[in-house]
């Protein structure tokens, strides 16, 4: 019983490591999309940041 549980836990850990880059890219895309969609006075937050740093 204990051996089967260890095998299942190892499979779960391996999938997190295997697909870790995909999780990171998905999270980054979601954050960037939300920064594009949130607007203050008709201008997106990401556009404000871009204008501020790359004048």
Descriptive report:
- The chain is mostly helical and 55 residues long.
- Helices cover 80% and strands 7% of the residues.
- The chain has helices at residues 2-18, 20-37, 45-53; strands spanning 39-40, 43-44.
- It has a two-stranded antiparallel sheet.
- A hairpin with a 2-residue loop joins strand 1 (39-40) and strand 2 (43-44).
- The chain starts with a helix and ends with a helix.
- The model has no long low-confidence stretch (mean pLDDT 87).
The gist of it:
By secondary structure, the chain is mainly alpha-helical.
- Count the E strands: 2
As laid out across the biggest beta sheet, the strand order is 1-2
Structural category: mainly alpha
- Percent helix, as a range, is over 70%
Biggest sheet layout: 2 strands, antiparallel
Rg calc:
20 Å
Based on CA inertia axes, which overall geometry fits? rod-shaped
Distance between the termini: 63 Å
Give me the secondary-structure topology.
Elements: H1 2-18, H2 20-37, E1 39-40, E2 43-44, H3 45-53
Antiparallel strand pairs: 1-2
List its salient traits.
55 residues; mainly alpha; two-stranded antiparallel ribbon
């Amino acid at each position: 019983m204990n051996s089967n549980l260890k095998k299942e836990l190892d499979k779960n850990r391996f999938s997190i490591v295997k697909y870790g880059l995909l999780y990171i890219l998905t999270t980054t895309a979601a954050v960037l999309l939300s920064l594009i969609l949130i607007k203050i006075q008709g201008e997106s937050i990401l556009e404000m940041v871009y204008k501020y740093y790359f004048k």
